[in-house]
Fold each of these.
Amino acid sequence: MKFIKYIAVVVVGVLATSCSDFLEPEPSSAITSENYYSTIDELETALVGAYDAIQGEGNYDKDANHGVQYEFYITEMRSGNTATKIADPDDFSDSGQFEAFNVLPTNGIVANYYSSFYQVIFRANVVLENLSNVDDDTSAIEAEAKFIRAYAYFNLVRLFGDIPLVDHVLSPSETDTQFIRVDKNLVYDLIVTDLQTAVAGLDNTYKTRASKAAAQGLLAKVYLSLEEPDYVNAQLMCEEIINSGNFSLVDYYDVFYDELNSEIIFAIGFEPVNDSQTFSAQWMNQVGVSSGLNYATYDLVDDLNEFGGERTQYSYRQDPLHLTSVRYQCAKYFPNGEDGGTTNPHQFDTNPELAGNDWIVLRYADILLLHVEAIMAGSDQTSATAALASFQQVRDRAGLTDPVTEITVDDLLLERRVELAFENHRLFDLIRLGKAQSVLSAYSDLNGFGFTSSDLVLPMPQNEVNLSDGLMTQNPGY
Amino acid sequence: MKNRYNIKTYVSQKLMAALLVVTCAMATACDPSIDALAFDLPDANSQDDKTPPTALFTVSEGDDFLSFTFANESVSATSYLWDYGDGNTATSLDGMNTYPDEGTYTVTLTATDDLGVSSTYSEEVVVVEPEIPPTSIPVILEAGFDNGNDSRDPWRNSDLGGVIQITSSNGYHEGSYGAKLPTSGDRIGYQLIGEFTPNKTYQLNFKYAFRDQIEDANGSLNVAMVQPMTDLSQFDDNAMGMITFTEDVAGAGALASGALVFNSGANTSLAIFFFNADDEAYIDSFEIIALE
């Protein structure tokens, strides 16, 4: 009997001490998210993953995130700049809803962009959450992750208005944070502090990854987009980039077809075949799965013809395959630089649906025009010397060398339109400069479309509203 | 026999009754016409409207100061009535109005749903022709150095150099006193001033003089506007404008007028910074004005 007591004590002791390790063994031949991020290099692979989420998948799978490749639908095609090949107010397909301002909450493209960019935010948050696992100096990694997070939030807050603010990796029980929309000013607070960290912690090594100049440029635009714009700091950010001497304007054609040229500040990199995009093909006539997207409206073509100068010939071309009416295509992103010729169907040396054209997010001409906007500081016009100098640089490159002595808000909007057409700026420019309602309702009336002021923000995706179990509210008008 | 008859009667009576009930039921329940529902109470099982309309809009200025656009942000409404406060009304979804003149107008939006429930929201619109905002003129402390040695305090910055001396020598100042930079050239004046209006052209006026203490040396005086700085090494990057006077051109003895024109750029505060080299220099009577 005595021995049984001792044996019992020993058995209980063994059970109590050894169970936990035994039942949750550390895998010795596999990597888990819990033991992975332990060196700078490993954190960097997580960063690269976040860029991968911005790129999105280069295919047409409806269930896959397509990231920035779908951005033109929800920005350029809602701005009066572009439309489907045959614009039609009664076209209620997902891609046909944008041009006529008839976007439905069930639109799959809107949902795709929303989930793509929260995926970007998630991946950036994973990096930030694991910084403390590494003993080395992680400040550059932190700066880069915060740049990515700010870039994603800046796009989302401008497109959807109030949105859920997720600043850490969520656990499944945190449904409130996942679905409850917070005031957009709070989202902007996070964007500004993230970008300030990015400006302080980054250098100008990369163009397809975050850099100091990219953070400064994005921050300038953020300052100008605030409810109470911070014009002086926006001007300072632009001048930091201008005075750095690292960037210059190049020949207009080379901006788009000589990748990573000295005008590019930040671009989303793509490579043909293995890391490719589909939008270049989609914008042509029946090259992708669509019959033709992001075609220039007559409204845009008229402005380009009258005010574009030498930029016009490199901005659009008449669709050579569509013979029943006159339609215009974007000429800035031909797949791998090949315009397909005039044969029907087009002929290409490389696969146009696996195109490698980078997507330009920030370039020097954008910064010069933001500099003008910052100096204008909310007034109707400016003739300040510094503003005229920046404005003139952009026009000189386009061959419009007549000296400008005064710039009005409308001059600035027009210059941005013809300089940055097809680059997903127009909608945000109209909103930021307070002209969206008047310009877009006039355009809509002329074309029989259904624009109302509530169309300036997208609907929250209906599947998110449904999943939220009443926590997520819909935007007015949807 | 009698019993059997009874059973038959009983069965047939039951059957008849059952048939009658079924027929009646069918006659009432299966009648597809609306008449059958005529006696249903109209409000039976109906629910309260849990989403009554809420009227809301935001105002933004249009192409000129008289025209405004109104973005309708009402929820749960189907018809709208805009009263722009100047006698104009509209029933469109979004509003747009051009006012006849300056003034304060109350814009009222009435949003109504199909149950006839309505909500109103009002906001005042101030129509005023925008004035060109006046250029702000910063205040310079002890601009004339007329409080003797106390005048030195706003001009001190020991990170950049020694403090100025104060002079009362005849001919080298205006008013009671002026500032003096001795031959050693190691003293400076530095004062951070604001508010500047960004991107405006200003002119800094002052009086200055040289005294020929060292015969071989050509003395110089530099007056600059700089962004705030903590070390002389930042001078080249921070200078917004600088003017240099030399003894051989300006001569010695007589008090002369100097001016520095500069643009405030993206700054709301800037510092006046002056220093000399090689010979004794005097400076006095700072004043800042906006040009244009």
Amino acid sequence: MVSTKVSRRRFVAGTAVASTALVAAPFVRSAYAAGKLSVGFWDHWVPGANKATTDLVKEWADKEKVEVTIDYITSQGNKLLLTTAAESQAKSGHDILAFSTWLPSRYADQLVPMNDVVEPLIKANGAVNGTVEYLGKVDGKWLAVPATVGSQIKGPCSRIDLLKKHAGIDIQAMYPAGAAPNADAWNLDNFLKAAEACQKGGNPFGIGLGTTSDNVDTAGALFHAFGAMLVDAKGNITVKSDPVRQAMDYYKRLMAFLPPDAPSWDDASNNKFLVSGQGSLIMNPPSAWAVAKRDAPQVAEQLWTHGFPAGPKGRFGPFLPFFWGVWNFSKNQAAAKSLITFLSQAASAEKMVIASGGYDLPAFANLTTFKVWAEEAPPKGTLYHYPNPHNHQTLSIAAAPAPHKIAEQIYTQAIQTQMVVRYAKGEAMDRTLDWAAKELEGFSRN
Amino acid sequence: MADIAARNPAVLAGNQRSGLHKLMQRKSTIAFLMALPLILLIAILVAYPAGYAVYLATLNKGMTRFVGFGNFEFLFGRDTFWLVVYQSCLFAITAVIFKAIIGFVVAHFVHNIPAKGQRKWRGMLLVPWVIPPAMSTLAWLWLFDPSYSALNWILAIFGIEGIPWTGEAGWARFSVILVNVWIGSPFFMIMYLAALKSVPEQLYEAASIDGATWWQRIWYVTLPMMRNIIAITALFSLIVTFANFDIVRVLTAGGPLNSTHIFGTWAFRVGIEGGDIPLGAAVSLFMVPILAVAATFILRDITKRGSEV
């Protein structure tokens, strides 16, 4: 390898031209030539998961001779959200930052286009799902690269024994480990019957109706199952429609079988409900199972992660991706793109997934069949269907397909769960819809 | 001749030096210089952010153009905003009233404890106030937990049905006010205790000689002597309570159905979580006129009483 000393300016100018071939061509070939790179990653809740990322970054930095500093920023207390807002305002900060679900579109004007990174990755790793494209690509421009770390599907995690005992459902037969789902009977009608049976049996479904993400995601997927949109892709308010009314009616019936305190649940409530042994089903990534494995192994042995029930318009599962984006004020954009490309390779993604115990999910179609999901136990195969390996359900996000600025407000202000609770607590349907329409009107302002 | 002397550089420098010397000897100059670090600190940490918030509140959602009072006009048309105004007033006024009553009563109890044991009682009663609110509120959150509430567990022992502490609008409002009162009462207690200790004992003796009852002594001696402290404490607490964020954020995050949102939490929801920073800034600025009116009335009353004395 030829070692040449390249000034940083020369390097940046040169690599900007060459950035279209990032995977094939290492962008720098001498010590210090690439300067420095600062990265703000999401701080993983799984102990040791950050280390896999650190090791990968180190491997890349050693090879490319770049000095990299990493900050792991927790999302607890909205720290990552606040950091992102502060960096955006100050136009200074990390070169690469982890952007949660709605943030790429929020900061679209300040992010470097990533088409030259994402398009080759799609060619290599397979297509991304529609939700990732909706959230990460605007007007043909990829705003950020879907990240493996932190991305998750919030599908049902059920108690094998309790579903069998109370509702007569063999969830493992519906979603067998290592094979395609056999879940035609897993629809919203049977889901409701199972919710009723489990509630009568003393182990209700643990579906929250609060304003935090888990609650909103479940409501979003069930609304999608009815084809219920609050605002369409063009920004028209469509809340006063039959599908929305059907979804609300369904939720009202379902709410009767949920814990009475469900409207005040946060993202920890459902986990606690399942791990304590009270609940028979929650909607969550495998974090609850991982906690149960540590704190309540007898519960963990009975948990099975699987797909959503199908509704009249299909089977939808909530997908929450994280992204890695590069600010347009970054001084080292080419190096940033190179690092993101490296982290998005199949081998890197697999290391991250293994380190997270199967929690993290790559967004690319060919990366959903790593061995780790088939092998995680107990019981063996409990996570096999978690990454949706057979494309059994459409991965979705609440409030889609509304324009991002409106959808983000619908999501963060939990309009869907608020509508459901209002209606279920006795408010007239039309009044609830009027309230929602007025809120949505407000979100539409520019 | 004098003109020539004035133009002489040596004379000029001497005059300037003596001018500067005189300036430096002025009390007001020294006072200003000594206060300068604090003034700079306030300018950086208070004035600049406040000015920036005003600037942000005049921008459109995308922060690309000036909209004047557009954000404020928009808020006036939102039902949720008026709900937040109502809840902020309810939260602050109710909490301050209860903190004042409890602080007043407890201050009297502590005042009547013999001096020997008073210090440890004062110390213990201050504990809720000195614990960081985010931490103590977390403990309250566990007590109010929807599924595993320790309070409900106790109620269940007596056969009483569990209360949805944070799950129902009325109870959720009660819970956030209760926690605020628990945290804030010791401040009132300590302020009132200090005021009580400064009331001359002779006044009570004179009142006793005149045959005043316990209630008359409170009404005609204690309260008038404490009026200014009560007013200032109430004002200070009103400002802090209006601007509260952590209790509501940790306990209910504004729910259920937005029924516990106050200005701070809703501004955060709209501005930071929802990505509409100008609107969030506009929401938070609404505290200013409300508090300004309260401060004007309370401080005017204090000034009036001061001049009467």
